[in-house]
Amino acid sequence: MRKLLLTASVLALAATAMPASAETIRWARGADALTLDPHSQNEGTTHTFAHHIYETLVWRDTEGTLIPRLATEWAIKEGDDTTWVFTLREGVTFHDGAEFNAEDVVFSLDRARSERSNMRQLHADVESVTAVDDYTVEVKLKGPSPLYPNNLTNTFMMDKTWAETNDVVEVQDYAGGEDNYAVRNTNGTGPYKLVSREVGVRSVLEVNPDHWAETEPAVTEIIYTPISDAATRVAALLSGEVDFVQDVPVQDIERLSSTDGIKVATGPENRIIYFGYRLTEEPLASSDVTDKNPFSDPKVLEAMHLSIDRDAIKEVVMRGNSVPTGVATPPFVNGWTEELDAYPAPDLERARALMEEAGYGDGFTVTLDTPNNRYVNDEAISQAVVGMLGQIGIRATLASRPVAQHSPLITNGDTDFYLLGWGVPTFDSAYIFNDLIHTKEGNYGAYNPSGYSNAELDAKIESLGTQTDLEARDATIAEIWATIQEDRVLLPIHNQVLAYATKSNFTIDVHPENQPNMSNVTIGE
């Protein structure tokens, strides 16, 4: 049956795919963008697609360097170290021909920091956004914030008038299942325009001939096809139905590398893969322990850490394509250290003893929620961890879902135990703390369903936004990481390694944020 399903999927793809030209790239990856509302979801697949349509004030190149985009310059205001001044690019138009100006930036930043926005934690320290003139914007913060521009690389600019006309001034409530005009319709300033959108099936983009860049992209049409099944994605590349597979299954890297007409590029991603768990005292909804929460016991958490064989996951599940770690931050990020990165060797004897001491000698049951189309081998990693935890009596039932269904479990707090990946576009630990560690309240804790709450730690996290003494700030970051590690707030597994596979006439650089940019693709034999 599986073979028949795979064959049917490939045939369906062949039936819908448009004939390729030298200017068309047919791009396949495991998941679709969750939404096209640019401020609704802080999620990598969604951002990667949106970057082709919408643009940000600043962004990063493939080296991770912050570079101009819709802002040509940015600086702290002279005589006021709490205000950033952004000089905007002139002559930019939206896809409908409307002029881009400071009014659109004010609207977009205010929308991105509004209550419904999943981007608001990046702008938690913003007090006001003001248009000084048509091409100058001032962002007033609660205090000095020397790193604020780092927070802007995924905050997209919208046309205020278009948003008002189409009743999308408010951000889509994605977790609440809300729809709006911006979910399937777009009006950005980016190098490509949306032509058609079939959610979960196929989206087509065409080059924007009025884009401000001096050079027109070699790729003038993008056909984006989400293919959740890994074997089907690879089959589509080998059969010539697609040109680019963004997330190559680790088991196929060697085969594709040695296939004529195909080339594979690999590189480290600025992303951690980890497990989280509910840490409140209340019993878990999915466990057979009904009077308390086993995860609230530090001995259970320590036992779990000691049961995980990260090196085995690297060698067997990831075929060598991961970097095991003991801390939930990649090496790209300010705050990472070799000491934090160290991880324990598995010690099942000690882990079982800790379970016995905690009163769970006979173990317990729990449901493990995992995505199956978002991260490299995400479901397989979870399956491996289920087996490892089973050796110490934790009987986890795997609940596997596409990321579109998995993500709301995290943001709504409807999970006891889960796998998640976290990229860090700011290259700074505060991004991790704000979303994953801080108490879930207001602008913070959007991806913290654990119930973990530490008022003293929250205060330290919030202070990072306006600390100007960078040496003191780094010391605060180190203190926060020490507490996170001591409390076992997260269960880190590894840093992700990326593999892109293309037809040999396409060259696409591996991006540390896993955000390949089709406008920079080169085409040639």
Attribute tags:
525 residues, 4-stranded antiparallel β-sheet, alpha+beta, 3 domains, 9-stranded mixed β-sheet, 19 strands, Dipeptide-binding Protein, domain 3, Dipeptide-binding Protein, domain 1, globular, D-Maltodextrin-Binding Protein, domain 2
Would you kindly provide a written description of the structure presented here, covering whatever features stand out?
- The N terminus is likely disordered.
- Helix content is 27%, strand content 22%.
- The protein contains 15 helices and 19 strands.
- The two termini are 39 Å apart.
- The chain folds into three domains: 116 residues, Periplasmic binding protein-like II (D-Maltodextrin-Binding Protein, domain 2, 3-Layer(aba) Sandwich); 138 residues, Dipeptide-binding Protein, domain 1 (Alpha-Beta Complex), CATH 3.90.76.10; 229 residues, Roll (Dipeptide-binding Protein, domain 3), CATH 3.10.105.10.
- Helix 7 packs antiparallel against helix 10 and helix 14 packs antiparallel against helix 15.
- It is globular.
- The strands form five sheets. Strands 1, 8, 9, 10, 11, 12, 13, 16 and 17 form a nine-stranded mixed β-sheet that branches. Strands 4-5-7-6 form a four-stranded antiparallel β-sheet, with helices on one face. Strands 2-3 form a two-stranded antiparallel sheet.
- A hairpin with a 6-residue loop joins strand 4 and strand 5.
- By secondary structure, the protein is of the alpha+beta class.
